[in-house]
Structure formats: structure tokens, C-alpha cells
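User: Some background: our group keeps a shared notebook of sequences we're curious about, and every so often someone picks one and asks for a predicted structure to add to the entry. Today it's my turn. The entry only has the sequence so far, pasted here. Could you supply the structure so I can complete it?
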Amino acid sequence: MKRKLFGWAGILFLTLACGLFTPAAAPTQPSVETIVAETFQALTVTAPAAETQVPVPTQINGTVVAVNNISFVIPMGVGSGAQAEFIEAVPPSNDMPWWEIGPAYNQYLIQSYPLAGAFHEPRIFVYPVSEYVQMVPDVGGIVDELKTIVNSPNAPMPENLPFLPAFNAAQIFHSNEQVIQFQSGTGIRFLTQYAQAPYPVNNNSLFYTFQGITSDGAFYVSAILPINAAFLSADGNPETPLPADGIPFDWENFENTPQHFELAKQKLNTTDPNAFSPSLTSLDTLIQSIKISVP
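Assistant: Of course. Here's the predicted structure to add to the notebook entry:
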């Protein structure tokens, strides 16, 4: 079993090392600000939503975050505030790992998120597109692919969806894809999981992500928000009991791993949006409230 595991991980590592995945964002810096709760009302968009898009709500009760010309609302039950951080640029250098190169950007860590201890921290990122492409030309391809998806929402989805910040790991599947608008642009939300070796879809690693771009093309908006589904393993560990309606994972025959991912994808796609924790509805609402104001 170990030989198969290391072989699969090696293939992934070589794929990543060949430059098919974009360098990740820079390490986080000390916090800047925590926002207090309010009510944000009457959100609007200038362009009508397409039939495939999630409708934009007209009222959101929750926590208003407004820092560095960026604002959004955290719905009740998703968090109590956000820790705003300005991350300094990390230019290329001989001793800099490729996944850490990137421009200065804004990051928001959601506080009091209901899934404490998940593998990923709940965060929203706002990157300047032109600076990122100048430092990492491959990011231009990610931006172009995202534009293609949002401009043709009914077209078949690619095998791998555009994603920033990049990880030194592979996107093993995606589900629940939906093009949605936010206050300053459009993007796609989906559920996914990243890994460097065969591993079951599980509640510790699964996350909701949004990948969007502002209408003027100036900013790339990304969100990583952990999410749980009742039928998934708590952590993917083979010793952890599966729920009665869980999806088995064949630890002895990794050639069956794609079948596990497909079954997980089908079940996630047919799950009631409000049966997730947090609900897809509440996470979509957070994303739809994002507004970027150019000073």
C-alpha cells in the first residue's frame, strides 16, 4: 500500500514542479483590524444576473466588514467579524519557493467560524491582477480561464477549475459549481479538496471556494471557507468510522480512487444547499456582498 501511495504522491509532485500550478500567495503578516457587527441592507448590482446565477439578496443581517476599500457582510452563523491583514509582496529570488511568490494583497480571516480546527482557515483574498501577472505570468492563464467560465456559464466545466492561491498539491475534484455575482464583478463558487496523495473526501479538508474577478478586471477575489456534509468522514482517516450513508474509500487499490471522487461529487451535487454546515446559501450570501471601491 505504501508503494502505491508514494507513487501517486510523486506523480503529483512532479506535475506541480513542472509549473502546471501557480505559485501560492505570500505568508500571512500580523493582524490589522477586527470589525464589529452591524446590519447591511439594500445590496444591489448594476447588471442583471443570468439564469444560471444565484440571485443577489436585497438584505443581509450580519457583520459588516469595511477595510482598505473592501467591504462585505458576514451572515449570522458564519462568523462574528474579520481580521484584516495587508500581506506584503514576495518577489522572485533564487532561494524563494515558487509557491510563495506574489504581489501585495489584502486578506480577511473570518472570526468565530463554526468549523474550528478545519485544515483550511476561513479566509477571503483580494489580489491586484496586473501586479500578480507581472510577477507570475502563469496567473494570466488562470484569469483568462475564469473569464471564459463566467462568460459561458452553461458550457461544460474544465477538469480543473481556476484557483488562487495555489497550493503545492492537486485539485482532486470539484462539485456544486455555480456562477454568481458579487457587488463588483462575477465568479464561480464550488466545493473542492486538494491533496498530494490519494485520500478520501472528508469534512476536515473539504472547502467552499469562490474565484471571481471585478468587472474592470483589476482585482481577483478568492475565498476559502471550510464546509461539512453529514455523510462524509470526519477526517478521512481509515480508522475513523464512516457515517451509515458514507462513501467507502479503497485503501488497498488506489486505482479505484477516481470512482470514490465521482461518487462523492454526485452526492454533494444532490445535497440540499441548506443541509451543509455552514449552508451554501449563507456562504453564497457572504460572497455576493463583497464590494471593492477604487479610491
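Suggested note for the entry: The longest helix spans residues 2-20. The helical segments are 2-20, 129-135, 139-151, 257-269, 280-288.
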